[in-house]
Amino acid sequence: xxxxxxxxxxxxxxxxxxxxxxxxxxxxxxxxxxxxxxxxxxxxxxxxxxxxxxxxxxxxxxxxxxxxxxxxxxxxxxxxxxxxxxxxxxxxxxxxxxxxxxxxxxxxxxxxxxxxxxxxxxxxxxxxxxxxxxxxxxxxxxxxxxxxxxxxxxxxxxxxxxxxxxxxxxxxxxxxxxxxxxxxxxxxxxxxxxxxxxxxxxxxxxxxxxxxxxxxxxxxxxxxxxxxxxxxxxxxxxxxxxxxxxxxxxxxxxxxxxxxxxxxx
Amino acid sequence: xxxxxxxxxxxxxxxxxxxxxxxxxxxxxxxxxxxxxxxxxxxxxxxxxxxxxxxxxxxxxxxxxxxxxxxxxxxxxxxxxxxxxxxxxxxxxxxxxxxxxxxxxxxxxxxxxxxxxxxxxxxxxxxxxxxxxxxxxxxxxxxxxxxxxxxxxxxxxxxxxxxxxxxxxxxxxxxxxxxxxxxxxxxxxxxxxxxxxxxxxxxxxxxxxxxxxxxxxxxxxxxxxxxxxxxxxxxxxxxxxxxxxxxxxxxxxxxxxxxxxxxxxxxxxxxxxxxxxxxxxx
Lengths: 265, 282
Hints:
The structure holds 2 protein chains of 2 kinds. Chain A has a single domain (59-264), classed as MetI-like fold. Chain A contains 13 helices and no strands. Chain A has helices at residues 5-22, 28-32, 49-56, 58-92, 95-109, 112-126, 132-156, 160-168, 173-184, 186-202, 205-210, 218-228, 233-264. In chain A, α4 (58-92) runs antiparallel to α10, α5 packs across α7 and α7 (132-156) runs antiparallel to α10 (186-202). Chain B is mostly helical. The relative contact order of chain B is 0.12. At the A-B interface, α1, α4, α5, α6 and α7 of A face α2, α4, α5, α6 and α8 of B.
């Protein structure tokens, strides 16, 4: 289509909107540098005291650590289960397997508040409330569909003849899986692992229901800070989170560019 | 036995671990909640009848639906404009736009909610700036009301609205639009009568996706509403964690769940669901 006046205006509008999406988060940076003891914009003088507090406070450090442990475990477990399941669904590919696939994607679209209720309801009798195991299991169920999606997308471009060739040459199921299928779907597996990590690292609604004292993740502590709305340490934590997001994004972008290049060769 | 092995594909063995986990630890308790909605505190449809009796309850449901509709309208309209601009510009510009979109997608919901708190409060940056340049004398109430909730929600939902639209617009055959122009239609006519109808599947998918996600949204309404705007998700959490009333909460959850499943069913008529979800991962 000819790009007319309307297209031009629309493009400017789209840029404004995209900046509107990203810039509000940046306000955490000045607020985190305030020298005052309460949440405020700094006037003239800047201070790093809130970062110092963040990195020396036992509470915040333990939350970083706990969130890290839970997100890494969730990512490992969800990637393992999700990848196996995606390969299984791809190999069966029948009417029933498509039904199962649709069913397994549900945790991603069912409102988090309902998932939170469900886990809360079951974790009480199972004694899993406020435990690492409880959070990891719940997060794994929410994150596995992500892995299922990314791995299935990779499998869609995998040539099934390669699998047949491997088997005809005498390789066992396991050997074929390890040396033929897995290497070709590596990008999907990595992307899935990364998304699963982020989902768990950032998860708050389910966490609010099933954790209390002994497990206090980073989102949980931030949530508390936001509700109390006084301590600028929250702003410092927000800045650290933004930095982590940007680093993760750059790593992801480089990885997917490299993958695109190797595939093109 | 033989017929069993004939029908049993070995692939099911590696599907089973995840499937068993989800059925036992997720589907099970969800069915239990549906059951609770008709048995707690006593068997029958008492919990559902409350919707007709209690004005407070009905108001919460209505507030939720109204906010979700407004959020969806704004997010999808603005999302359409972004997706349109992204499809109709140079490759380089498009990749910059996509980067901004995905970065905003990746920034923690808590960070974003915190930022809105800093921006929109009575002494927030927006009010202070407006006062400093003399545009307003009194601070505007951006928070603890529906306006704040809407700003936060639309901001969060726009990326979700864009992605399905982008998938749908990218797969269009642009020659159809060229043909329309060559046959003498104006740009506006081509847009309204050709382009918009052709992107309808993406539009429907995007609308339903945003609506579904808005329905159960908890974080932003709870913080920016500041207790003044009570939506279903927050009400459920109060019922469970403070007043310990499972029956009413289960009834609201059941309504929400049926609503979501119905919308997913409608959505699957228009678009392969996996492409909607798949779109968010690229």
